[in-house]
Amino acid sequence: MGSCKENQQENPQQSNCEFVQGPIIVGAGPSGLAAAACLSNHGVPSLILEKSDCIASLWQHKTYDRLKLHLPKQFCELPLMGFPEDFPRYPTKSQFISYMETYASHFSIKPKFNQAVQSAEFDSGFWRVKTQDFEYSSEWLIVATGENAEPVIPEIGGMEIFQGPILHTSLYKSGSDFRNQRVLVVGCGNSGMEVSLDLCRYNANPHVVVRNTVHVLPREMFGFSTFGIAMALLKWLPLKLVDKVLLLLATIILGNTDQLGLRRPKTGPIELKNATGKTPVLDVGALAQIKSGKIKVVVEGVKEITRNGARFMNGQEKEFDSIILATGYKSNVPTWLKGCDFFTKEGMPKTPFPDCWKGSEGLYTVGFTRRGLLGTASDAVAIANDIAQLWKTNKDCRSSCNSHIILLK
């Protein structure tokens, strides 16, 4: 099969095929925007394909109203442009979206929206990327769909007979929709804890399922960001020792969380995050509600959903009005990237951090480091530097070839 460029040369009337001079970027979230901005800074054009109708669609369409950044803004900035100085330490959802829109405008980034990539495959020296109604071709492909592209919906027996609503946190907006209800929250990560806290504000009665171990840390320690403290200590101390310091301080501030049904893993929070991607819960008030009894912790897993509630592994059954699945997200790369062994079956790069940003044959990834927006920024800079060198080499080669042709004439 020939490339899109070759097809266009053979059939210039073909209107559903386009050769892209620079890289094709799949995804217009923070990762895709950061990559495009860094490339633009080197004078390299790019094309972003986005399946939704806007940038940062996860933030715009699949997050709850009260969401704020979990980390201070200095750890969440994209390359080449920081947050406005008047933004608070932890920007709100609307402020982060505003930052993304300003970022895209500043770097003249104009994605092609409503272009859902159905397949991308390396063929005859080019990446062929097909959407529902078009085909694009380029020497480079940047996968920027990220770790959180699709909601994870667990298969729990009986879900089809439950009388109330069952929804993933990607569809949850506000506790006002669950006022005075008994709500089962399945999952105890940051989303599960914050949704439970939001439900309390509307006099709901949340029960959060904590089936596995979990690290809960205060968002701040003695007025300083816990994440910032960890980053500072890692410059001087071994990772395991930093974990011990964090856990000691967390116990002093929060108390023994094991007594609340929140058992800590044996592996420290930073080591666990680096190894598995499991993020510690940064507490913003849910722990106090657990201590007061307003949020009930259920340590048994859900065995099945019943008509009026749920039955747990210990045989106990409880009634609920609604069920919220705080079960996280997953990569969608395996559904569309074809003939490539760079990714695992779970859609994560096989090459570990910090070298996970570059594959072979012009393939790059941004936003798969398990290190949040800091990792995204690092990837984007590295990718742009690498492609810019190739772009300059190719440009010099083309100029040299053109000059040689002129001399021959």
Automatic annotation (TrEMBL):
Question: Which family, according to the similarity comment?
Answer: Belongs to the FMO family.
This protein's cofactor list reads: FAD
Q: Which GO terms describe its molecular function?
A: flavin adenine dinucleotide binding; indole-3-pyruvate monooxygenase activity
InterPro entries per UniProt: Auxin_biosynth/cation_transpt (IPR050982), FAD/NAD-bd_sf (IPR036188)
- Supply the EC number(s): 1.14.13.168
Keyword annotations for this protein? Auxin biosynthesis, FAD, Flavoprotein, Monooxygenase, NADP, Oxidoreductase, Pyruvate
What name does this protein carry?
A: indole-3-pyruvate monooxygenase
Pathway membership: Plant hormone metabolism; auxin biosynthesis
An example of a Gene Ontology cellular component annotation for this protein is: endoplasmic reticulum membrane
Substrates-to-products reaction catalysed: indole-3-pyruvate + NADPH + O2 + H(+) = (indol-3-yl)acetate + CO2 + NADP(+) + H2O
Q: Which GO terms describe its biological process?
A: auxin biosynthetic process
Pfam families xrefs: Pyr_redox_3
